[in-house]
Amino acid sequence: MIQRFPASSRYSVKNDWLKSNLSFSFGEYYDEENIQFGPLRVFNDDTVQAGKGFGIHPHREAEIVSIVLHGQLKHEDSLGNSGILQFGNVQRMTAGTGLLHSEMNPSLEEEASFLQLWFKPTKKQLPPSYEDISYNTDSMRNKLLPIVSSTPTKGASKIHSDVTLYLSTLDAGKQIFYQQEQGRKMYVFVIDGELILNDDVVVGKRDSARITELNELTLKSTNETFFLLIDLGGA
Amino acid sequence: MLLIRHSIGSRLFYQTDEYDIHPKKDKWVISIKIPEEDAKEIIKFKEELNLFDVEENQKTWYYSSDANVEFSKEKYQMTIIADHKTIYPV
Asked: What is the value of pTM for the model shown?
C-alpha cells in the first residue's frame, strides 16, 4: 500500500526564528494516530533564520539525522564535537544515555534549511556518539546514494536503528527501481520536483509517501527531482 | 519550576512549582503534587520522560532510565526515581 501525505497535511510551526513542518507528532503537535512509521518517529522540515537556532538542549534514546539542504548549520555538543555543515553534509547523532547539543545557523545573512529525522534505536543505553559525513552530490544523480545505514556501507554514516537512508536526484523522465525484503517499509520524501510511484501515485514537492506491504517500488520523475528514500524495519 | 516533557519532541506534559527533589544514594527522588488526569498521561509515556528543574541561569535535566514512575491516587502524588542528572546553563 502506498499512502501519500501531501505537504499541506503537515503541521506547521512558525516563530520569529524557525519555520518547521512536522510530519509526525512533535512538540505542541500531538496526534496519537501519527506517532511514528516503523522506527521513524520525527521528520521535521526546518528553516532557521540567519544567526538563530536551537540553543543548548539535551536528548536521549534517539538516533538523530540532520540533512542540510541550504545554508549552514553549526553543530556543538557535550562530547566535544563541533563543525559547520552545509549541503552535501549529513550528521548522525546517537543520543543514547544522553548528550547536550546546539544547532545554530552561523550565517548572519542567509537562512538555513535542513531535514531533522529521529529514529528509534535498536538498543537502549547506547553510549552517545556523533558523526558527520560528506557525500559527493554528483554521485546521487540517477542513483540511490546511501548516506546513513545500520549496515556497514561505504561512505554512509552508521546508525543504530534498522534503517537505510538514500538520497537521489533523478533527471526528468528517469526511472529508478528499489527492492527490499518482505515485511519492511519504505518512506519517500520529495525535496524538490515530482515522482510517480509504481506508475500510480504522484508525490510532489515536500509530499511524502508511507509504503507498506510492497517490496518493490518504481520511482519515476516527471521533472528533475531530488528526493529521500528510507528503507525501514517493519516493527 | 519543574517541567515534565516527552523525550521525543519535547511535548510538555506538566509544569509545576509544587515539587521536591532529594538525593537518595546515587539516585534522585522527585515528588510532585499532580491531578490524576495529568498523571495518567505521564504514566502512558513513562519510558520517555525528561524532567527539567528550571532555575534562573541553569536547567537540571533528570530522567529515569528504567521508567521508575509511580502515582498515588490517595495523595495525588507522583514519584519519579531518576538515575540521571545533568546541569547545564541557559
From this structure: 0.96
